[in-house]
Amino acid sequence: MICVLLVDDDRELTDMLSQYLEREGFAATAVHTGEEGEVLALSGDYSIVVLDVMLPRLSGIEVLRRIRSQSQVPVLLLTARGDNIDKIAGLELGADDYVPKPSSPGELVARLRAIMRRVAPVGKPLNDVIHTGTLTLWPGKRQASWQGRSLELTSTEFSLLEELARHAGQVVSKQDLSLNALGRALTRYDRRIDVHISSIRQKLGPRDDAKAWIQSVRGLGYQLIAE
Fold first, then answer.
1. What is the pLDDT of residues 77-123, one digit of tens each?
2. Distance CA 181, CA 163 (A)
3. Do residues 184 and 168 lie in contact, with contact meaning Cβ atoms separated by under 8 Å?
4. Which of 8, 42, 75, 175 sits most deeply, having the most CB atoms within 10 A of its CB?
5. How many CB atoms lie within 10 A of CB 56?
């Protein structure tokens, strides 16, 4: 069973979401402060965290920062509708996705399931390995190695890098990245992929010529440079 941690100070909302999630086959626990959310998110007892950005005292963005300093547990942000600053800040800090508030419980469940499919994809054997240059990916185990060292990626970053690695040296369109890695069609003005790619670039570091390992091809998409 997928265990969901809800972190939101709106008790009426978390009660409603908990009941809905349990009807959908999830196990849900709700807490109402950032401090409680941080402790439980780092406990290892939860499959995924649903984190409200607007929390009292300790903001959701700061909670996310603290979680990401120690854990790669998937995090889905609840953001104010139209607040692009929090959305982008959250993605840059390693959030896997976001849902604007108010949103339907059905949309939240769909996003949770999409993230969990990326974390534990069905039908990918544990011995499946992708090699390109000094990058090695084990999709079945969701593990990555770069230049001989472990590469820490969020679930969304892993899915995007996997798609690029499977087509190393080729341009992959943003639409294909969104469909194959994120599980949904790309919408107009959606910057999720760009922000996640920027984070992956930082983790890979520059090439010897100071260029990025993942190149942006204007009007087409992204390309992982094959060594």
1. 998 877 778 888 899 999 999 998 888 899 899 999 988 888 765 55
2. 7
3. no
4. 75
5. 9
Which residue intervals of the chain bear CATH 3.40.50.2300?
Answer: 3-119
This prediction's pTM: 0.77
- How far, in whole angstroms, is CA 64 from its chain's centroid? 12
CATH 1.10.260.40 describes domain 130-224: no
Query: 42, 49, 47: which is closest to 66 by C-alpha?
Result: 42
Q: Which residues pair with 137 in a beta bridge?
A: 130, 144
Q: Please, which residues bridge with residue 30 across strands? A: 6
CATH code linked to domain 3-119: 3.40.50.2300
CATH 1.10.10.10 maps onto the chain at 130-224
Question: 81 with 107: CB under 8 angstroms?
Answer: no
